[in-house]
Design brief:
single chain; about 100 residues; mainly alpha; Helicase, Ruva Protein, domain 3; about 0% strand; globular
Length: about 100
Amino acid sequence: MRALEQANRVRLARAELKRQVADGEATVAGIVLECPWEAESMNIADLLMSQHRWGRSRCRRFLTSISMLETKTIGSMTERQRKELAGRLTGDQDRMAA
C-alpha cells in the first residue's frame, strides 16, 4: 500500500510540474538545474515534451544534438550534462561551455 501511495504522490507531482512548464510558470532548464525530487526519476523526453510545440520529433532532434538518450533520467544526469542542456535550452553560451 505504501508503494502505491508513493507512486501516486510522484505521479501527481510530475503532472503538476508538467502543467507548470506548459503554463510558463516553470522552465525545463530551471527544473533540470534544480532537479526537484519529483523529477529525479523522470525521463528527460517527458519533461521536454511538456513544453508548447515540443513533440517527439523535436525532442529527438534536440537530444541527438547533445548525444543524450530520451530515456535518460534527470536524476542520473551529471552536473556538466545539466548545465549543457540548460544552456542549450536558454541559449546561454557561458553555461554550455562550463
